[in-house]
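Good day; I would like, with your permission, to put a structural problem before you. The record follows directly beneath this note:
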Amino acid sequence: MPAPHDPPDSAALTEALRAVLVPLARLAVARGMPFAAVELLMKQAFVDAAREVHGGAAQPHRMVSRIATATGLTRREVTKLASPPQARVGGPGADAPAAPRTHASEVFARWMSDPAYRTRRGPRSLPRLGDAPSFEALAQSVTRDVHPRSLLDELIRLGLAEHDEARDSVSLSREAFVPRGDTARMLGFLGANVGDHLAGAVDNVLGVGDRHFEQALFADGLPDDAIERLRDLVSAQWKLLRAALVPALEAMIDAERAAGRRGPRRVRIGLYTYDDGAGVSTEAAVPARPRRIRRTTKPEGT
């Protein structure tokens, strides 16, 4: 229970932070990252956030004092951590540069979205060599600096494509670029996707700028076999959403390039599902009727 002097939303904030931090702690423990390393990252994040809030302070010693007051850290800790993010080179607290798109990911994206390389049912199976539509032509439409065979080998290594040697044809084995066996890249996706989602949700709570679109459905009392059916349904809806959005986004980017510009804004659009995996035996608990679906919403951006 919050103390009498705590803000009225203190308990809600504590529970929200707990919900966010528990999965992060689980990831750190699973990957062998000790608490001290995470603590240092958290301190650095607090310093960066406080600096952003108090960016108008001109004198460095005053900035240190303000950051220490806002975060509860000591002045000595703040002084040690308060170097500007762009000045940090490696080490804990350094800002990791955004992972550039690889040629393999660009081939995958074009294969998924270009009408020449897909049908209404999904990505085509392509002959490995020859004129378009072929994998060779697809790879060369992305880059001529890397041999198509090397790009194919990389897609196969990541578990994203398969090569039928008898027919010398290539097909995608997955419809999402989440490479198998590429832990570093998967962690990159985790940081980018969850980071942007959380940043948008925090902006909504704090009333910063335009409202970000953030909606979710929640249901409980479901039988075990319903989860698989829901996964298929969500996957189908994501394919429809992706088919509508990818060409629209590419057209916007192409229009900027044609005008010799590069717009300053970026966007990330996602869809996710989560089930707790804590299914109960139908013999143990059978609800009298399906429980209602609760729809949680936050203001949409306009």
Q: What stands out?
A: Residues 25 and 35 are 8 Å apart (CA to CA). The chain has a mean pLDDT of 80. The first helix runs from residue 10 to 30.
